[in-house]
Amino acid sequence: MSLLDNLMGALGGHEGGADLSGLIETIGGQGAAGGVGGLVEAFQKGGLGAVAQSWVSSGANLPISAEQIQAVLGSGAVGQFAEKLGVDPQVGAAKLAELLPSLVDKLTPGGQLPTEGLGGAVGDLLGGFLKT
Predict the structure, then answer these.
(1) Taking the complete model, does pTM exceed 0.90, yes or no?
(2) Where are the alpha helices (DSSP H) in 11-131?
């Protein structure tokens, strides 16, 4: 199953970048920068900066556990994501642990955080998947 299939399945099959953008804003909104930058910042503050940085860098992505996701993002963000999926928070945290490394990796080409709004980055990501 491709990253796009996983993301669309996680979001209930909705098409387009708005739902994906909302997901990242929900889970990354705690950081001052919001979006992907806010998400990375949240992991740095939670003591998992090296893990998040591995997703941004061009090297291999380090894994993360559902428990670590819950600890960094908190029950509110994980609960909102789980509610969107229609699952309990533990399952939502596990899905985030599965998806976030690849998602952040794809949204940070060349090891750089996006400088434009998240919507453009998500649109580019989805556009690339839809063309292939």
Answers:
(1) no
(2) 17-28, 35-45, 49-56, 66-85, 89-107, 118-131
Which one-letter amino acid corresponds to residue 23?
Answer: L
- The full set of domain ranges for the chain reads 3-131
CATH architecture of 3-131: Orthogonal Bundle (1.10)
Cβ neighbours of residue 121 closer than 8 Å, sequence gap 6 or more:
36, 107, 114
Look at the block and give the residue holding tokens 């909102």: 80
The three state secondary structure string of 9-32 is HHCCCCCCHHHHHHHHHHHHCCCC
* Average pLDDT along the chain, 132 residues, taken 10 residues at a time: 46 46 57 72 94 94 96 89 88 91 88 65 46 44
